[in-house]
Amino acid sequence: PVVVAKGQDALAQRIRTVATENGIPIIENKPLARALYAEVEVGDAIPEQFYQAVVTVLKEVYRLDRSKAAVWT
Hints:
Number of domains: 1
Largest sheet: none
Number of helices: 3
Number of strands: 0
């Protein structure tokens, strides 16, 4: 995974708004978000030390996608 955007305050809110408008799920994990914000730049790959936390977030995204697909069929 690669960091595609990051921001604080108004910029963070704008990122969330754009994500919502484009159907991108938002999974809240403040400790992970804060650590990535401090240590990773936009365009950088997620460092290995964060893999387990990112896997947890991705599992939730996939679970949401499956539940949406079940509703649409």
